[in-house]
Write a structure and sequence with these properties.
- By secondary structure, this protein is an alpha/beta fold.
- The chain is built from eleven helices and twelve strands.
- Helix 1 (about 10-25) crosses helix 3 (about 60-70), helix 1 (about 10-25) crosses helix 4 (about 95-125) and helix 4 (about 95-125) crosses helix 5.
C-alpha cells in the first residue's frame, strides 16, 4: 500500500521548511534553547503518536533537522501511509540538543497536519472498501500547502482531483450562469478552446441539467448534493458515458451509502480544509 505513494520533490519540502524555520527563529534564533542548553549538549529523542492514525509528512521532520544541523540523525521507523496506534514510535532522533529542540515544532507541525489529512482519508477509504469507487480531495486547500495536502490524501489511500485551475476544466454553476445558463454551450465552448488532452467536468444539481449535459459528452459529471435516489438515477442515465462523481456534504456516516449508488468518485473538500491534526509528540529518551 505505501510503496505506491509517489514522494514529494525534495526542493518543495526544503523551501517550505526553510520558510517555516525562518518564521519561528526570526532574527535572534531560539532564545530558550540557546540560553539554557550548552552548545555541545547531545540528545536522544523519539517522535511518538498519541492517537490512532495514518502517517504522512515524515520527510518534513528529516529536512527540518538537517537544516539546523548536519550532525542530527533521524531514523524513520514508520513510512508514510502506514497506520499507527497510541505509543507507536515513528522516528528516532539523535544529535545536538539545540538543533533538535529548535526544529521540533516545525517538523511536528507539518507531520501532524498532513497525518491528520491522511488519517481522515484512510477512514473514508476503509468505509467504502470493496466498492469500485475512488475517494478524492478538492481544491479547498490551505494556500501554499496544496501539493503537501494532496500528497497526504494519497498517503491515506485516496486520489487527487485537479491540482489547480490550470490542469482541468471544471464548469460549475457560476461558469454556466456567466454564459447564459446553457450547460451545453459552456461545454462546447470549453472544448473548442482547450488542448486535446484536457478533460472537461461539468457540475449538475438536477437530473434535468444532467439530461442537458449528456449530449455534449463531458468527460466527468459532478453530481452535486443529490439525494440517494437521484444519484442512482443519474448513474443509470450516465451509463458509463462519463465518470460520475458525487460531491457535497459527504460524511463518515453517508460515504458508503453514497458510494453504493454506483458513482465512480466521491469528492470531499473537508479532507483538506477541516481534518484535525494527528497528535504527535517528541519524547526525550
Amino acid at each position: 500500500m505505501t510503496s505506491n505513494i509517489t514522494p514529494l520533490p525534495r526542493p518543495l519540502i526544503v523551501k517550505a521548511v526553510k520558510d517555516a524555520l525562518l518564521e519561528d527563529l526570526g532574527s535572534t534564533g531560539d532564545l530558550t534553547s540557546d540560553s539554557t542548553i550548552p552548545e555541545d549538549a547531545m540528545l536522544l529523542a523519539s517522535v511518538v503518536s498519541r492517537q490512532n492514525g495514518t502517517i504522512a509528512g515524515t520527510d518534513f521532520l528529516v529536512v527540518a533537522m538537517a537544516e539546523l544541523s548536519e550532525d542530527v540523525s533521524v531514523e524513520i521507523l514508520v513510512k508514510d501511509g502506514s497506520k499507527v496506534t497510541p505509543g507507536t514510535v515513528i522516528a528516532n532522533i539523535s544529535g545536538p540538543a539545540r538543533a533538535i529542540l529548535s526544529g521540533e515544532r516545525v517538523g511536528l507541525n507539518y507531520m501532524g497536519h498532513l497525518s491528520g489529512i491522511a488519517t481522515a482519508t484512510r477512514n473514508i477509504v476503509d468505509l467504502v472498501e470493496g466498492l469500485p469507487v475512488r475517494v478524492t480531495c478538492t481544491r479547498k486547500t490551505t494556500p501554499g500547502l496544496r501539493a503537501f495536502e494532496k500528497y497526504a490524501v494519497r498517503s491515506g489511500g485516496g486520489h487527487n482531483h485537479r491540482f489547480g485551475l490550470y490542469d482541468g476544466v471544471m464548469l460549475k454553476d457560476n461558469h454556466i450562469a456567466a454564459v447564459g445558463g446553457k450547460i451545453g454551450k459552456a461545454i462546447d465552448q470549453a472544448r473548442a478552446n482547450i488542448g486535446h488532452m484536457v478533460k472537461i467536468e461539468v457540475e449538475v444539481d438536477t437530473l434535468e441539467q444532467l439530461r442537458e449535459a449528456l449530449p455534449h459528452k463531458p468527460d466527468i459529471i459532478l453530481l452535486d448534493n443529490m439525494s440517494l435516489e437521484e444519484l442512482k438515477e443519474a448513474v443509470s442515465m450516465i451509463d458509463g458515458k462519463a465518470i460520475a462523481e458525487a460531491s457535497g456534504g459527504i460524511t463518515y456516516e453517508t460515504a458508503r451509502t453514497i458510494a453504493e449508488t454506483g458513482v465512480d468518485v466521491i469528492s470531499l473538500g473537508w479532507l483538506t480544509h477541516s481534518a484535525p491534526c494527528l497528535d504527535l509528540g517528541l519524547d526525550i529518551l
